[in-house]
Amino acid sequence: MIIKKAILAVLVTAALAGCQSQTEGQQRATTGALLGGAGGALVGQAIGGNTKSTVIGAAGGALLGAVVGSATTPQQPRGEQLCRYQDRYGRIYTAPCDDRYYNGNY
């Protein structure tokens, strides 16, 4: 039993270490998937009482949790988005978007 807990702790630590370089949207989707999977597994086990129900509940919960987590990510504040521009010599560069972008006058 102690070995199972140690393996679980290592897996959770490895999973959380991978979250360090993610964007906020990816972090929210990952967290939603983890929480949804755990909740779905519990509900699947409570309803079906067998392994198949638990796996189906975990998969459904993880999928729904990832979608909800990703969809609830706040949008970038105005002025932090980057647009592509072309200078008079034909070179393309990126810079923060100006009011033309926000007013629909591209």
Word description of this protein:
- It is built from four helices and two strands, in the order αααββα.
- By secondary structure, it is mainly α.
- It has two domains: 2-71, no CATH class; 77-106, no CATH class.
- A hairpin with a 5-residue loop joins strand 1 (82-86) and strand 2.
- The longest helix is centred in the middle third of the chain and has 25 residues, at 24-48.
- It is elongated, with a radius of gyration of 22 Å.
| Rounded mean pLDDT score | 81
Question: What's the arrangement of strands in the largest beta sheet?
Answer: 1-2
Order of helices and strands: HHHEEH
Number of separate domains = 2
Helix content: 55-70%
The N- and C-terminal alpha carbons lie at a distance of 63 Å
Low-pLDDT stretches are: none
Report the biggest beta sheet as strand number plus sense, adding barrel if it closes: 2 strands, antiparallel
**3D shape:** elongated
Structural class: mainly alpha
- Output the radius of gyration: 22 Å
